[in-house]
Design brief:
Helices cover 31% and strands 29% of the residues. By secondary structure, the protein is an alpha/beta fold. The protein has a 6-stranded mixed β-sheet, sandwiched between helices. Helix 3 packs parallel to helix 5. It is elongated, with a radius of gyration of 24 Å. 31% of the residues are buried.
């Protein structure tokens, strides 16, 4: 699969020496959904703004569909749709005119059929003649997506698309994003909701302090970096973990009734069989055993956690 967006050695620094982006390299593949995760101030919005031409890079290069965003800005920008974090819409305009106006800004010919198609795809068809001020917050976010799609872009950037949206509407948004991907649109979204990336992304990128820490297939990431936990419920509480079991680095619950063993799923040997044998030798009677896979959130927290 070829890259539709290519970022090479991208840096963005401000007066005073603050570096918002530090030699970022990123290849975004055509037709994928890439989720960009990172804490507040990590550089997510700066990266998107720079790719979209809103922020001028200090150094480095960006191409979109083969067009350099500095030397061929108009050609590159025509391929991009951007849905910003902030809801900034003209309250007294109708939904249809708002979306149509965005199409005109990119020099596209009037196409009412296409605008209606987008509105129907986003469940806004019955709201097309409504004034924007009459819409709910979730509907206004859909209008933002419709505006971004009005000029038929090949790449769509969604900056915190479900911020402030309730759980039900968030899941509706996930379905919309999946539908856009099916229509051939490449999607890059930033999000604070780990479950969002886990639910819809093909690949996950983690950014922190202006640096890309990792970009990887979501399933591969969880397989390679995810840990599994064996949770052992004891028949009777134990005051301490027997010294004979120290090698397993077991975590004991406060009530002494549970022991947790963390192991790597990619290792040739998990150590579970010997652990269970050693538990019996140590005189601990097991009541129940459960396993749990670490989530994408656990992996993300581990990557951005400050060293102590």
């Amino acid at each position: 699969m070829s890259s539709i967006v290519s970022v090479q050695n991208l840096r963005k620094s401000y007066a005073g020496g603050f570096e918002a982006l530090k030699s970022v390299n990123l290849e975004i593949e055509e037709g994928e959904i890439l989720a960009l995760l990172g804490p507040n101030g990590a550089g997510k919005t700066t990266l998107i703004s720079t790719i979209c031409g809103i922020t001028v890079p200090t150094s480095g290069s960006i191409t979109v569909g083969g067009h350099d965003t500095q030397t061929a800005f108009r050609a590159a920008r025509n391929l991009i749709g951007l849905v910003p974090q902030e809801i900034n819409l003209e309250p007294f305009e109708t939904v249809f005119s708002t979306v149509s106006f965005s199409r005109g800004l990119f020099g596209k010919k009037r196409d009412d059929a296409y605008i209606n198609k987008i509105l129907n795809q986003l469940s806004l068809g019955d709201k097309k003649d409504s004034k924007v001020m009459m819409l709910s917050g979730g509907m206004k976010r859909r209008v933002l997506i419709a505006k971004a799609l009005a000029h038929e872009p090949r790449v769509l950037f969604l900056d915190e698309p479900t911020a402030g949206v309730d759980v039900e509407l968030r899941k509706d948004m996930w379905e919309i994003v999946a539908g856009l991907k099916a229509s051939g649109v490449t999607i890059i979204l930033t999000t604070h909701y780990i479950e969002e990336a886990e639910a819809i992304a093909d690949r996950v990128g983690v950014i922190n302090k202006g640096e890309i820490l990792l970009v990887q297939d979501k399933a591969e990431m969880m397989a390679q970096m995810g840990k599994k936990q064996l949770k052992i419920e004891l028949a009777t509480a134990t005051d301490d973990v027997p010294t004979a079991l120290n090698a397993y680095e077991l975590a004991r619950s406060d009530d002494g009734l549970h022991l947790t063993y963390t192991y790597d799923t990619t290792s040739e040997r998990t150590g579970i069989t010997t652990l269970l044998n050693d538990l019996q030798k140590a005189g601990l009677q097991m009541k129940d055993i459960q396993t749990a896979q670490s989530s994408l959130e656990d992996i993300f927290v581990g990557l951005v956690k400050e060293p102590t």
